[in-house]
UniProtKB/TrEMBL annotation:
Reaction catalyzed: L-aspartate + NADP(+) + H2O = oxaloacetate + NH4(+) + NADPH + H(+); L-aspartate + NAD(+) + H2O = oxaloacetate + NH4(+) + NADH + H(+)
Organism listed in the record: Alloyangia mangrovi
Transmembrane parts of this sequence: none
NCBIfam families assigned to the protein according to its UniProt record, in alphabetical order: PRK13303.1-2 (NF009827), PRK13303.1-3 (NF009828), PRK13303.1-4 (NF009829)
Name of protein: L-aspartate dehydrogenase
Top-rank lineage group of the source organism: Bacteria
Binding site residues for NAD(+): 121, 187
Keyword Oxidoreductase listed: yes
EC class name: oxidoreductase
One Pfam family in the UniProt entry: Asp_DH_C
UniProt keyword Signal present: no
Pathway in which the depicted protein is active: Cofactor biosynthesis; NAD(+) biosynthesis; iminoaspartate from L-aspartate (dehydrogenase route): step 1/1
Length: 264
């Protein structure tokens, strides 16, 4: 049987966690990645590090998983799809851009490939998708993370993160604006928006909480189907406090499912 070999775009906290976890599982190998030139030296010898998308395509991976940035989705994913290689996207916030969504669909169509997004650090997207068919009246997402997870974001200019003593909300608005302002922390809101009522109508609240030990995601929806509320309390990846471990596990699950002929 063919042993699938996949490639990652990016080789940060999530791709590393995915690679180790797949190695333990044994059925699929993450054997290559596409990284910026400056990052190449930090990729272990067992992984082939490409710095051009053309070289990655020439290596013909069975599947590519994007675990990098919104820019990587914009720049690298369309040519890979056009080359006939399926792609799983994790930096879903990039899809707040309608033109990019069309570009990706066109690229997949012309290459006869498939592009999909992961559920990532959140759950309940199946409920939203089903509920949306009968109409959703309201979808609200509340993201709560420890202050260190908001470092390097506009929250830093709105709050004194290191001096916070109580949970503080610093953003309330649409998923469109959240994806733009907090690209490394609101990919989950993009997944919620795509499954439910779209980017402009998905309400988002973001909280820096000095008492929080986890990255928590609260999702509430109301519609013709009824009501729904879930709360996830995710442990962060040790290498990146912004990213939940569950997000990496959800990529692994999507990869294994991709190569399974029976979807259960
Ligand atoms: N859907 C979801 O639920 C979730 C999605 N995410 C998203 O997943 C992605 C990966 O997360 P994580 O691994 O924690 O992030 P990291 O920052 O740890 O890793 C991202 C890596 O991608 C590299 N990179 C940057 N630009 C490019 C590019 N154009 N092409 C290839 N590589 C590039 C970075 O290199 P350098 O350091 O040199 O810039 C870095 O090594 C992020 O976009 C994150 O926001 C995260 C959590 C949940
Ligand atoms: O991993 C998480 O908890 C969520 C996250 O960063 C994102 O949605 O981008």
């Amino acid at each position: 049987m063919h042993h699938p070999s996949i490639a990652a775009i990016g080789f940060g906290a999530m791709a590393r966690s995915l690679q180790k976890s797949l190695e333990q599982h044994g059925d699929v190998t993450l054997s290559a990645c596409l990284v910026p030139e400056a990052f190449r030296a930090s990729v272990p010898d067992t992984i082939t590090a490409y710095t051009s998308v053309e070289d990655l395509i020439a290596a013909k991976p069975d599947l590519v998983v994007e675990c990098a940035t919104h820019d990587a989705v914009r720049e690298s994913v369309p040519p890979i799809l056009r080359a006939g290689i399926d792609v799983i996207i994790v930096s879903i916030g990039a899809l707040a851009d309608r033109d990019l969504r069309e570009t990706l669909q066109d690229a997949a169509h012309s290459g006869g490939s498939r592009v999909s997004v992961v559920s990532g650090a959140i759950g309940g997207l199946d409920v939203l998708r089903a509920g949306a068919l009968a109409g959703l009246e309201e979808v609200t997402y509340v993201g709560r993370k420890p202050p260190r997870a908001w470092a390097g974001t506009p929250a830093e200019t709105l709050l004194n993160l290191s001096a916070l003593t109580e949970p503080t909300e610093f953003y309330e608005g649409s998923a469109t604006q959240a994806a733009h302002d907090y690209p490394k922390n609101t990919n989950v809101t993009a997944a919620v928006a795509l499954a439910g009522v779209g980017f402009d109508d998905t309400r988002v609240k973001l909280i820096a909480d000095p008492t929080a030990q986890t990255n928590s995601h609260e999702l509430e929806a109301r519609g013709a189907f009824g009501r729904f509320r879930i709360v996830l309390e995710n442990n962060a990846l040790p290498e990146n406090p912004k990213t939940s471990w569950l997000a990496a596990l959800s990529v692994e699950q999507a990869v294994l499912r991709h190569f399974n002929s029976m979807e259960v």
